[in-house]
Design goal:
It is a single chain. The protein has eleven helices and no strands. It is mainly α and about 200 residues long. The chain folds into two domains: about 55 residues, Arc Repressor Mutant, subunit A (Orthogonal Bundle), CATH 1.10.10; about 130 residues, Tetracycline Repressor, domain 2, CATH 1.10.357. Helix 6 runs parallel beside helix 10 and helix 6 crosses helix 11. The chain starts with a helix and ends in a 5-residue tail after the last helix.
Length: about 200
């Protein structure tokens, strides 16, 4: 089972690299298989086709999204630590998948299967985190004078969007500050300073 999982991950990693570089439409299953070091039949057995690979990549990205984690998070009295954990998750996902996610976002405008498979991911991530923010506002942990969707957007602006923006601007090797826990904590502190409820 571990070997099958390992092979599947190699295929997904290869597809992620190729989709980021060439886009979905220009990447063939043969190229993915070659990059992964497997034959095309192995790819078809595991994922059926290129859309199956895309779906699996979408599911892998979704597992690292704060909105999904927020929906599954157990109630916690330590909202600050929970949100910091979400920030770490989003930044790690952006560092890992940012190039592919940005390329596929552009592809979605002209490739229907990309729009169909990945189209709901960003809105669902935003909605999941906004709902968590709203719950924490009702609990008195976060400011209640800010729309929870705006708060969720601000959170993403200082986490995954921050990393991806710098990748778009050609500064892919610059965000060393967010590859360390101290850098992530600094970004999160900017968010927390504006979002936490004043309990004095």
């Amino acid at each position: 089972m571990a070997r099958t999982q390992d092979t599947a991950e190699r295929i997904l990693d290869a597809a992620s690299e190729l989709f980021a570089t060439y886009g979905y439409a220009s990447t063939t299953t043969r190229a993915i298989a070659e990059r992964a070091g497997v034959n095309e039949v192995t790819l078809f057995r595991r994922f059926e086709n290129k859309i199956g690979v895309l779906r699996a990549l979408g599911e892998r990205m979704a597992r690292r999204q704060a909105g999904r984690a927020a929906a599954a998070a157990p109630p916690s009295g330590d909202v600050q630590s929970t949100l910091l954990g979400f920030a770490r998750m989003e930044i790690a996902g952006a560092l890992e998948d940012g190039g592919m996610a940005m390329r596929l976002a552009f592809d979605a405008a002209s490739v229907p299967e990309v729009a169909e498979v990945l189209g709901a991911g960003v809105p669902e991530n935003l909605a999941g985190l906004a709902e968590y923010m709203a719950e924490q506002q009702r609990a008195g942990e976060l400011r209640d004078d800010v729309d929870p969707r705006v708060m969720a957007e601000a959170f993403f602006g200082l986490t995954s969007s921050y990393v991806m923006y710098r990748q778009v601007m050609g500064a892919a090797d610059v965000p060393a500050d967010v590859q360390t826990d101290a850098g992530i904590e600094q970004l999160f502190d900017i968010f927390w300073s504006g979002a936490s409820a004043d309990k004095e």
